[in-house]
């Protein structure tokens, strides 16, 4: 039986119930670990709630800069989007939370860790793969896979019985996860994939129909594939993402409603807001069109789905993800420049791009008179590329 457990704690429904349940079930000391990854909550209130719910200690780590610098921006450099659309805000947050949690385990000499993830979701995998990365022998307690509480409705009843304050209710039981990169909504009333999300649900983005009637132009500067400035103002990673969220969110950019394939095998509906990430991704792609070699970009893009799948499935610390990252970071070393993006009622379009070392040559691409490209060369080029097609067709005509 564990004597000291470190719980990844958010103050939400699942972890509030888990804290009390762990304490009562194991008669153990439970330490609450809360990572500030930009969820925009009053973390001192979360601390007080954890103590009131039974935690012996509460650790609160400000991980915002590390989260954006070492997790979000590397994924953006990889152009990572799971199943084309999901920029993986939750997937990227779990490994850094697990890393911080395991540092507390080491500091406190704890013999077990826990989390509030369900046995149906992806987060249980992401957390636990991170735990095992840092301590292969650690004991992991996953309450959702053990206790008799089988639904969030039962959990809400549990909190009322134990007088634990929560936000969720039977009328609005969907789950919300927010960090500096995105806000996600799933479960409850969103489980019907035909039902449109309530407009009042969204936290980071304005309804595109109610967004400003005048477009907003914004310039994003990149250095080696990483965003460093917005409208000429250089900012730290977290501050830059905050500003990008504010600008893009005001214009209704970044909403995604998808049915995705969870790692455990089922399909699930998720609604996401990633305003800043959507803006930065579009802006970086614009600079890449000037600065990345065609074949390098094609190779990177061919690996993006594999990279995104690794991150989504929880393999952030796996050697294959690390290897892919090193290749990607080498590939985008030349992606330095500025793109101008137009934001208007949910749309995010490229209005201009420039780079100091651009591969784009106006003298080559022009339709006007020039002296650097002999158009006659194109005939031989086409004939060589058509050779296999011509041979195959000649054989077919003889049959």
CATH superfamily of the largest domain: Argininosuccinate synthetase, chain A, domain 2
CATH architecture of the largest domain: Alpha-Beta Complex
Helix count equals 12
CATH fold naming of the largest domain:
Argininosuccinate synthetase, chain A, domain 2
- Class derived from helix and strand content: alpha/beta
| Silhouette | elongated
List the strand order in the largest sheet.
3-2-1-4-5
Question: What proportion strand?
Answer: 15-25%
Number of strands: 14
**Alpha carbon gyration radius:** 25 Å
Uncertain runs = none
Would you kindly provide a written description of the structure presented here, covering whatever features stand out?
The model has no long low-confidence stretch (mean pLDDT 93). Helix 3 packs across helix 4. This protein has 12 helices and 14 strands. It is an alpha/beta fold.
